[in-house]
Design a protein that fits this description.
PH-domain like; alpha+beta; three-stranded antiparallel beta sheet; 2 domains
């Protein structure tokens, strides 16, 4: 999901916020986790009633692992990228910071490339002065193409030959 924040009129700053699409709210995710755990207990109970005495023990291991896996996936959806373009620089930062410092590229020399490395997906890469960084990895292919078009449009008026 690409959110274009309002332009700061006095500075000409444009901000794009990139985030993965979420299908479930926090409450819906909790409910899904609860329902899956109840279903696992029900199946383990039916299996135990049918003679499989190990099914309840397996369910006691499975349920916390399932809950932790769903929680990790949910937390992974909190990651966002913020691309800020002002008159001189293009800044890319992770929100919340993922241990990697924000990258800054000079807007006049930044180029947008769309690469197809053979994995069936297109990747949007920003390059300037020998440095490159992929942006929008959390987006789908159509959204990446939209992002590349927006970035090309935003950067097109910024030439290094002023």
């Amino acid at each position: 999901m690409i959110t274009r924040l309002p332009v700061a009129a006095e500075s000409g700053q444009v901000t794009l916020l990139l985030a993965p699409n979420r299908a479930l709210s926090r409450e819906q995710m909790r409910r899904l986790t609860w329902e899956l755990c109840v279903a696992a207990l029900l199946v383990a109970g039916l299996a135990a009633w049918g003679g499989d005495i190990f099914a309840p023990m397996f369910a006691l291991v499975e349920i916390p692992v399932l809950a932790l896996a769903l929680w990790a996936v949910w937390r992974g959806g909190d990651r966002r990228e913020r691309i800020t373009l002002d008159t001189d620089n293009l800044r890319i930062e992770q929100v919340p910071p993922a241990g990697r410092a924000a990258s800054t590229f000079p807007a006049a020399w930044t180029r947008v490339q769309v690469l197809e490395p053979g994995d069936g997906h297109r990747h949007v890469v920003l390059t300037a002065h020998g440095h490159a960084q992929e942006v929008g990895a959390c987006l789908g292919d159509d959204e990446r193409m939209q992002l590349s078009q927006w970035l090309k449009t935003l950067l097109s008026g910024r030439s290094g030959w002023r």
